[in-house]
């Protein structure tokens, strides 16, 4: 998946970004009840996310490039629940970042501190992915 297809968008910064083309993502993002909430387990983070299954997995795999452990997604509430009180109350907040992932999007339903940390992990994962997919010939001088 090309890094150019994965981007970050601040809440309310939809101008300049194409609308979410994935019907499953749109449906999940527009759902009033948030029945489609999933959880990203990454290091010490338990972050609630809303997206379709495919784009959620793509997001988790990019975030997983920033850890030595696995990034895991769950479709059910994890054992122990969400430890951060701010993240527990985040579904009631109007300010949630939407991160474009290819033609879909992922909504991060967390407190501002954990939103910032997971977005930073995603951006670092994008940079790592870009470096991994870059041609070695483009960065290595010729050895003739």
Report on this model:
The chain has 144 residues and is α+β, with helices and mostly antiparallel strands. It has helices at residues 23-30, 53-63, 85-89, 112-133, 136-139; strands spanning 37-42, 45-50, 72-74, 98-101, 104-108. It has one domain. The protein contains five helices and five strands, in the order H-E-E-H-E-H-E-E-H-H. Strands 3-1-2-5-4 form a five-stranded antiparallel β-sheet, with helices on both faces. Strand 1 (37-42) and strand 2 (45-50) form a beta hairpin. 33% of the residues are buried.
List the helices and strands and how they pair.
Blueprint: H1 23-30, E1 37-42, E2 45-50, H2 53-63, E3 72-74, H3 85-89, E4 98-101, E5 104-108, H4 112-133, H5 136-139
Antiparallel strand pairs: 1-2, 1-3, 2-5, 4-5
Biggest sheet record = 5 strands, antiparallel
How far the N terminus sits from the C terminus, by CA atoms, comes to: 33 Å
Rg, nearest Å: 16 Å
Strand order of the largest sheet: 3-1-2-5-4
What is the helix tally?
Answer: 5
- Uncertain segments are 1-17
SSE series: HEEHEHEEHH
Shape: globular
Number of strands: 5
Bin the strand percentage.
Answer: 15-25%
Structural class by SSE content: alpha+beta
- The overall pLDDT average reads 78
The percent of residues in helical segments reads 25-40%
Query: How many domain modules?
Result: 1
